[in-house]
Write a structure and sequence with these properties.
The protein is built from eleven helices and twelve strands. It is globular, with a radius of gyration of 20 Å. The strands form three sheets. It has a five-stranded mixed beta sheet. Strands 10-9-8-11-12 form a five-stranded mixed beta sheet. Strands 5-6 form a two-stranded antiparallel sheet. It is of the alpha/beta class.
Length: about 350
């Protein structure tokens, strides 16, 4: 059995923990509910119990190299303190790393969840073998991470990759960050719902109004399902989504000029609804992308390996995540192995 590490994806809803071998083999994965309402001490105790059980189970066959924890929030990388997290109320200014190390007695690495997702895709996913890449995660909001020369790029104090708060509409919709017109207000699950609700309220989307009134679970996923069934009201929302994401990517591509940009997060599953408009907007707005775009960015001619083929020709590749929701788990497990 190989040496191994533990990767943890600590979300506001689910707590996922995996033992991963040094070559990326998934040894075991455990999923628990994140019982945020019971307090951070309860969550930490449940996490540490699971880490301890997995590490003891596999320690006989290989060396346990430590645990990596991906968390949703702003982290002080030097102290391992959670400065702020919208999904983990009550965790602000909490010394997460010290508390976990105190419970476990082993070295622990604390990292932002989007950064570990980037590292996971770069290690074992869509960007495997690509030393310079970035991920844009589309969920309730927009997150992001940058990998340069195989290592996470943090910026001055660990706050790089905040792609969701790049303004794309100067006088646009107010954002929770205090600005206006941020990308995540136009290209996220919450953006899809906002646009649908506004269209319904304005009487511009009778099909969405009908679906919303008959389905108590009506949300971004249901709007996507309507879009792929040809509903024009839903299709219009995802065209606006794609246009906004293309605007964001245009700036990111122009500035970073990386080999690959991976689109991850739950909303990336709506790729076929927004990607065509996204690529149209990107080619129109980015000089760098227009000069380096593959002939068929959607990969329809070259199949699943399109990004590999095109990369040999020094193209800018924009593609979907291969690891999906497991990207952060693998990325968190990768850190102790580096």
């Amino acid at each position: 059995m190989p040496d191994f590490s533990i990767g943890v994806d600590l979300g506001g809803t689910n707590l996922r923990i995996a033992a991963v071998g040094s070559e990326g083999q998934l040894l075991e994965k455990v999923t628990l509910g994140t019982k945020v309402a019971l307090g951070r001490d309860h969550v930490i105790t449940e996490m540490c119990d699971a880490i301890r059980r997995l590490s003891e189970q596999y320690r006989s066959g290989g060396k346990f190299l430590g645990a990596g924890i991906g968390v949703p929030g702003i982290i002080d990388m030097e102290t391992g303190t959670m400065r702020k997290s919208a999904n983990l109320p009550g965790w602000s200014d909490y010394p997460v790393r010290d508390e976990i190390e105190r419970h476990l007695g082993v070295r622990v690495f604390l990292e932002n969840d989007a950064n570990v997702a980037a590292l996971g895709e770069q290690w074992l996913g869509a960007a495997r073998g690509v030393p310079n890449m970035a991920i844009i995660t589309l969920g309730t909001g927009i997150g992001g991470g940058i990998v340069l020369d195989g290592k996470i790029f943090y910026g001055m104090n660990g706050m790089s990759g905040e792609f969701g708060h790049v303004p794309i509409e100067p006088e646009g919709v107010p954002c929770g960050c205090g600005s206006h017109g941020c990308a995540e207000r136009y290209a996220s699950a919450s953006a899809v719902m906002r646009m649908a609700q506004e269209a319904i309220a304005g009487g511009r989307a009778p099909s969405l109004a009908k679906a919303a009134s008959s389905d108590p679970e009506f949300g971004a996923k249901e709007i996507y399902n309507l879009a792929i069934q040809g509903d024009e009201d839903a299709r219009r929302i995802f065209r606006r989504f794609g246009k906004s994401l293309g605007m964001l990517l245009a700036g990111v591509v122009n500035i970073l000029n990386l080999e690959m940009f991976v689109i991850g997060g739950g909303v990336s599953s709506a790729w076929d609804a927004f990607a065509p408009t996204m690529f149209e907007e990107l080619r129109e707005r980015s000089l760098v992308y227009a000069a380096t775009a593959p002939e068929d960015p959607l990969g329809r001619d070259e199949g699943a390996s399109a990004h590999v083929v095109a990369r040999t020709r020094r193209k800018t590749i924009i593609t979907r995540s291969l690891l999906g929701s497991d990207a952060g788990l693998y990325g968190a497990a990768r850190i102790p192995l580096m």
